[in-house]
Amino acid sequence: MSEPVPTDAELVRRTVAGDRDAFARLYDRYARLVRAIAGDAGPDRAEDVTHDVFLRAYRSITALRDADRFAPWLVGIARRVVQETRRRPVREPLSSDVADGRPPAEHSIDDADERAHVLALVSRLPEEERRAVQFFFLSGRDGTETARLLGRSRSGTYALINRAVGILARWMGADHTAGEVPR
User: Fold this and answer.
1) Global pTM?
2) Basic and acidic residues composition bias: which ranges (predicted)?
């Protein structure tokens, strides 16, 4: 006899309780739907949008008031991310004037190399900025939790994160303006 298929609501409750496998099942259940919506952002952006949608959903799943409405809630997130993505210009490739002398983007740096490069740059940040980036972006904690771990106010934490993002952006040759960190 096979195990009954859990409902979305059950998987949401298990995710909130810390079961990452439950969220993986939600991902498997809805990834095709989200990819279809993400396609509206452009074929070259659909995969990034899909990842962003599920990351946002995971980070804010505790805000979902009715666990039975996971699918419509996820679709709403997807539509919002698509709209935001359409307003942004296509991401510029990495600049050739990065301090460590990496080759220009024309040399087709693949995603794994780019991630490794960014992580290497994060490791060069001053300790407090590095910890803020690790907690907020790499560990997926929200601003309140990051502030608590750093022993700072929320606004002080966001200022620290923005400073770190600004440093990273300069090192990568990209533009950065304060206030871009999602709260």
Assistant:
1) 0.50
2) 99-108
Look at 180 and 149; give whichever has higher pLDDT: 149
Percent of the chain with pLDDT over 70: 79
Residues 181, 162: contact at Cβ < 8 Å?
yes
∠ CA 23-29-33, rounded to 5°: 115
CA distance 183 to 143: 6
CATH of domain 8-87: 1.10.1740.10
pLDDT in tens, 131-156: 888 888 777 777 888 888 899 988 88
Cα–Cα dist 56/54, whole Å: 5
Tell me which residue of 77, 161, 124, 17 sits closest to 179, measured CA to CA.
161
What is the H or E stretch that residue 146 is in?
Answer: helix 143-150
